[in-house]
Amino acid sequence: MIKHHFNKPDFAKVHHTVFSKIEKRITLHVKTLLGIAALLILSVQVVGCGGGSEELIPERIPPIQVSANVDTSVDEQTQIDIEGAAIGGQGALSYAWQADDTITIVHADTSQANATLTTPIVTVDTQFTIRLVVTDERQVSSEDTFTLTVTPVNLPPVADISINSLPDYPQGSYPVQSQVILDAGASSDADAPSEQPQIAAYQWRQIAGTLLTPNGNLTSSRLELTTPITDQQETIIFELEVTDQEGTSTITQTQITLLGQSGTLPELHFNTMQNGFSGERLLLDMTASSAAPDAGPYSYFWQERSGNFPSLQIEDNTQAITYITLPTVEQTTELIIDAQITDSFDNTVRSEKRIIIEPFQPGQLNDTGAQESFDTRVIPGSDIDFGRDIAFSNDVVTKVGRGLNAFDFTRLNSNGDPVDTPTTSWSCVRDNVTGLVWQIKTTDNSSLHYENQLFTWYQADLNGNFRGERNLNSMSCNINSQECNTQSYLNEVNRQGLCGFFDWRIPTHAELQSIVHYGKMDAPLVDTEFLPFWGNDAEGLLWYWTRQSSADGLRADEARNAWAIDFNSGVDNVLSKSSEAKLRLVRAGRLQLEN
């Protein structure tokens, strides 16, 4: 704190002067009175240094005389003591300092003249008038002023550098081919002119380490670099100089660490990995990569980490692509698989994959029956890894009846009762997965259920605006009316009844496809132990009608085609409704699979 003092007034001289003037006034007054009345006795008691009891009349009250600091010069943002004094007036005196609003004056005790003043920020020498006003009990005031000159002092700017960070790396450390950002945008100047940017210029310099090439210029607030491919770790030092609007500069340094190839971590990526049901064979698939060209070859490792399945087996846990058989669970359970890769520099990265296992739910559609590929190629995540078939092979599926792979059938006799023995004749078969009951054909060429009958597609409703072909006077079926079409055949079967049921219908596309066994190598593609007698065809095709018309082949808003499935190849296609194909009826089902 800088203190400035002033010379206080000589109170003895002030006192002598004031009272000399009073004595002269009294002498003149006495002479006047003696000339008017000789008998008048003048008694005057003057209050002096020895004291007295009478108050002075107004003319006798001494005026307030004020003295404030002398003119002075001070640096900006400096705190100083200011002092003053006063005599005269009547009663106690009150002191008040006044100045420009930019100046801060702290004057806690107005009964005293002393106060504290803080100078403002200026850019050039600036003069301020500081005023001390003194007031007595009568509210009579007097004042004195002094001139305060404030001189600017240019504070140096502050250089502030921030550096970006990368996940998995320490602050200030960078692998090869990574981006480094040095940002000095937070640099500041406390006494900058408000109408201008605080920092007038930036200058970056690299003063140590392998020379790096910046992505931009060296005179902006932001310096961007891409780390080179090097073999070893190295320290790089940068210097930043910032200059303010008054031309004052500040220099600071920062450093980064280049980790090189040996310090660059590899990256682990999961490819398509799904959730699944108990018993399914699930694909585990990861790949490794690195910005370091010499990071390969990589080693891989899989392990179960959730702790819920200590006996869980991963088929080959040291391969990037492998398989796991999902364990049996009674409720939705999370399986955590830990994946790990290690590069040629012994850098190891781990990541986890969370797999949701659902309890096996008996579906309302059969699986395809396929459990192995038709050639030597491994197709990860293909049909053979999911569904009822793989669950059955892993002892998760419990069957009600019997059948190939996960197919589950029960034979029914002519009354619709289960007779699931190979030697007993049966007329229908129940699919225990879908709940559908299927018509069984026969080799008797005179039977209504003969396997080689053919029908055109004809349907009175839900026909796509075209009923189809009635196929009159045809000898391709065993219907007395000789109308060999799907509607006539359905009506006749329901009139006579089959297995005690009279609600047979033409199957939908999904229903008929649900019994195709795509894993069989020979036709017909179906479990013939439970669904025999599919007939034959001179062209080697076994087309069977579904109830669904097709949008293909529209003519004047009329669907001229309908869907059919070939049980020789397993493919589906659309046939003209006037074509002849075979028909196998269905009924019931827990869910009618329409479209």
Q: If you had to describe this structure to a student in words, what would you say it looks like?
A:
This protein is mainly β and 595 residues long. The chain folds into four domains: 2-151, Sandwich (Immunoglobulin-like); 162-262, Immunoglobulins (Immunoglobulin-like, Sandwich); 270-398, Immunoglobulin-like (Sandwich), CATH 2.60.40; 401-595, no CATH class. It is built from four helices and 31 strands. Strands 1-4-8-7 form a four-stranded mixed sheet, with no helix packed on it. Strands 3-10-9-6 form a four-stranded mixed sheet, with no helix packed on it. A hairpin with a 5-residue loop joins strand 9 (126-135) and strand 10. It is elongated. The two termini are 93 Å apart.
Keywords:
single chain, 595 residues, mainly beta, Immunoglobulin-like, 4 domains, four-stranded mixed beta sheet, 8% helix, elongated, disordered N terminus, disordered C terminus
Nutshell version of this structure?
With 595 residues, the chain is mostly beta strands. The chain is 8% helix and 31% strand. The strands form 9 sheets. Strands 1-4-8-7 form a 4-stranded mixed β-sheet, with no helix packed on it. Strands 3-10-9-6 form a 4-stranded mixed β-sheet, with no helix packed on it. It has a 4-stranded mixed β-sheet with strand order 12-17-16-14, with no helix packed on it.
